[in-house]
Amino acid sequence: MIIVRRLMPTLITLALLTGYAYAQETPIDRSARLRSELADVQARANELETRLAQINEDIKPENIERSLAGVGSTKPEELRETRRRQLDIQRKGIQAQLDSLATARTRLESSIVSTDAEQYRQSAGPTTSSISDSTSSAVKQNQRQKARVKKRGQRKTKT
Fold first, then answer.
1. Distance between CA 76 and CA 65 in Å, rounded?
2. 28 contacts: CB under 8 Å, gap ≥ 6
3. What is the Cα–Cα distance from 102 to 80, expressed in whole angstroms?
4. Distance between CA atoms of residues 33 and 148, nearest Å
């Protein structure tokens, strides 16, 4: 928990700085970067899951006793309890990191989906502004044509 509190300001600052730097990115570049970040998050989650499995194994009473077998003490119960608490604290810290990575993974996956959709829209055809421009120019052309026809009709009626 302490690690998460220490990292939070750093992560927020990093997110703000990278957000500005990536504002001019193309959708293709952004998609590639997001996929790379997702791979990094997944690799880190796998490492933490492996470490969590090891701690879950180490926290078993028989394994705690085995790890303290070479240590002589007049109060072995206190040593075992201290070791169990240390492992429990580590386990909770790793679980918090895994929860944070799961949130980051969800955020990255949704960002990838939206970036891919944006990339598809750009590659699929003209933008909505060019469609509206072409529609408005077609309307203007139609109005001009009607005005010409109207003028011709007025000329014919005069003669």
1. 9
2. 119
3. 33
4. 56
Residue 22 near residue 33, CB atoms below 8 Å? yes
- Residue 38 is classified by DSSP as H
Q: How confident is the model at residue 129 (pLDDT cuts 50, 70, 90)?
A: low
Q: Which two tokens stand for residue 30?
A: 């952004």
105 CB contacts (<8 Å, ≥6 apart)? 38, 41, 42, 45
101-112 residue pLDDT tens:
999 999 999 999
Contacts 24+ apart (CB under 8 A), 93-98: 93/1, 93/2, 93/3, 93/4, 94/48, 94/51, 94/52, 94/55, 95/52, 96/1, 96/3, 96/4, 97/3, 97/4, 97/48, 98/45, 98/48, 98/49, 98/52
Q: What are phi and psi of 3, to 5 degrees?
A: -65, -45
What are the residue ranges spanned by the domains of the chain? 2-123
Query: pTM above the 0.70 mark?
Result: no
Both tokens of 18, joined, read: 């990278």
